[in-house]
Amino acid sequence: MASTASQSLAPRRQKQRKVLLMGKSGAGKSSMRSIVFSNYVAKDVRRLGVTIDVEHSNIRFMGSLVLNLWDCGGQDGFTESYLDAQRGHVFSAVSTLIFVFDIESRDFQGDLISYSSIIRALHEHSPTAKIFVLIHKMDLMPANTRHSIFLERSDIIRKYSEREGFSSSVSGRNGERNNGVEFWATSIWDQSLYKAWTQVIYYLVPNASAIETLLRQLAEVIDARELILYERTTCLMVTHVTRGVEAENPYTDRFERISSILKTQKQSMASVLPSPNRSLSHLFPQAPISQANTALRTHSKHTGIPAGSANFAELQIKTGRFMFFITRLTDNTNLAAAIPPSEQVFNTARLNIQLVRWKFDELDIATKKKVEAAPAPATG
């Protein structure tokens, strides 16, 4: 008994995931990495220089999950080195390859040849690796042809992938961890970048399905229409649960929009002067903006806090048709909740989330401190 207790209180070992970020030079790899993990905004990435050889980043995600990200320069000389002298070093023990295609590339055939050579080496050294193909800079294509162009390019790349032993796979929201290839259209100027990287993170988090199950149970207890779990540092969604009428919400990109808003809040917190407020009300078209009663409590003022560490305590929106709040769930996650318009339901939901935090701490990859005993359940 004592032995079991001591094991449960011991710090959990770090879980490392090796992630390769590859593609031809100028495809936009470093730009998206800086936006997702370094709190850059799209207009600031123009000052980024060319990646020389490989830039290694150990990114702590959800506590002790470490993404060992290899941002690989895309110049031909570097690619030849990866495939020859550094072949075993680069492609061994890879969990995920993110390959970026520039939709405006003038040498798509050359890009395909490079891609084929890379995934051939990947299959040789890490045959179970997952591949995410990001067809990037889609904002440069005419809006009425983007989808058809994306499907056309995806179909061609899919055939090259299958020749090298990687089949296509369905995006996983059911807990599967199969290898294969997924395709995403992305741009740094809209929410598509967050959507694609959310899928990457969902695949890498080892206990995402268990977290999702617990979220579903919590949603039923507090009568939530929707619960969305965000990682605090990157503001990326980890997973979500949607129930009832919220399944009909026409804003299918609302999760990524909230990611963008949370990221903007971090950036404004880190600046000396506050940036203009951004409203969440457009995510809920059924509620007139005049009805919104928004309360935002922050941990600090605009005093130059590093963007990666700036976090708010809670955000609340109350209307006649819905209520919404985002609050801290664990040291590494925020929880967004959409619930019916009732003060009683709202207050009970907030209380129950506080009471269940210890349970999510147990699932959190990061628990480095002792998990406290669960509080006694509230009685009516």
From TrEMBL:
Organism: Cryomyces minteri
Keyword flag Lipid metabolism: no
One Pfam family cited in the UniProt record for this chain: Gtr1_RagA
Record family assignment: Belongs to the GTR/RAG GTP-binding protein family.
A single Gene Ontology CC term: nucleus
GO molecular function: GTP binding; GTPase activity
rRNA-binding listed as a keyword: no
Keywords, in A-Z order: GTP-binding, Nucleotide-binding
Protein name: GTP-binding protein
Role: GTPase involved in activation of the TORC1 signaling pathway, which promotes growth and represses autophagy in nutrient-rich conditions.
Annotated coiled-coil segments of the chain: none
GO term, biological process aspect, one: cellular response to starvation
Subunit field text: Component of the GSE complex.
